[in-house]
Description:
Blueprint: H1 6-21, H2 25-38, H3 43-55, H4 59-72, H5 76-88, H6 92-105, H7 111-122, H8 126-139, H9 144-156, H10 160-165, H11 167-173, H12 175-188, E1 193-196, E2 210-211, E3 225-234, H13 240-244, E4 249-253, E5 282-286, E6 291-299, E7 307-308, E8 313-317, E9 333-335, E10 339-340
Antiparallel strand pairs: 1-3, 2-7, 3-6, 4-8, 5-6, 8-9, 9-10
Helix pairs in contact: 1-2, 2-3, 3-4, 4-5, 5-6, 5-7, 6-7, 7-8, 7-9, 8-9, 9-12, 11-12
Amino acid sequence: xxxxxxxxxxxxxxxxxxxxxxxxxxxxxxxxxxxxxxxxxxxxxxxxxxxxxxxxxxxxxxxxxxxxxxxxxxxxxxxxxxxxxxxxxxxxxxxxxxxxxxxxxxxxxxxxxxxxxxxxxxxxxxxxxxxxxxxxxxxxxxxxxxxxxxxxxxxxxxxxxxxxxxxxxxxxxxxxxxxxxxxxxxxxxxxxxxxxxxxxxxxxxxxxxxxxxxxxxxxxxxxxxxxxxxxxxxxxxxxxxxxxxxxxxxxxxxxxxxxxxxxxxxxxxxxxxxxxxxxxxxxxxxxxxxxxxxxxxxxxxxxxxxxxxxxxxxxxxxxxxxxxxxxxxxxxxxxxxxxxx
Length: 341
């Protein structure tokens, strides 16, 4: 009856909201489309339609709706929505343009810097992204999303300490964001050896030139062999198949990287020295305890006078955690002489 009036637009909005309350997104979309056929110059309807498309991950259609909204009314809200659509369709330069325009036209809004932070995070320019998130939070001290995004950026660039420093503020003021960031940090943190458990049966503290029989009296017999274990504590959940794959482990004499770290302290290896097997016999992962029990065999020499340097036997793991993240290069080895490295 009055398609050009505000009442017609409001009626379409209410009808679309009724569809949404009934869980009928497609009905809401059709209602907004009919409203735009009556009055195509309503930027707020284009925006609402774009939001529905965006929620359905129909980013190309959302982009078209937001572009129409901006052409009709280049407001901060419309530009921000368009910038988001550009981000999700990989058009980062276009997204940056929209956010910089928000900065220029509305410098008191945090939207421009927040959007730029999101853009540079997608481009893996994390330091630049963090500066914009910081600026956004300075403008709006209630924008805890900016702190959370800073945490993601810190984690993605490997600065876990800075990311974790944001958690107390988020936990106090935006617990849901803090919980989500905490989960992300747990997933992003590289797995690592923490220490060796006391239930290990291999005495890795014995000095160089120790008789092999010092490990187990049974090894006093020439040519005898005995099984030992090293139980490693991880800092997070690991991938069982990766941990229990013997090929992901290496056991060897230490070649060292610091003072005293070489096998036998770098002195000539005696003829009596027994060799150590390169791969374990088997590995058992305990998901509840986050431990790996590595079983391997030590053999006495045929002359029965074998020696070994247990403190310089190096254990290294090349596998992944349950998220597929590889071991930290700073904590993927264990040496009795120096501990985790």
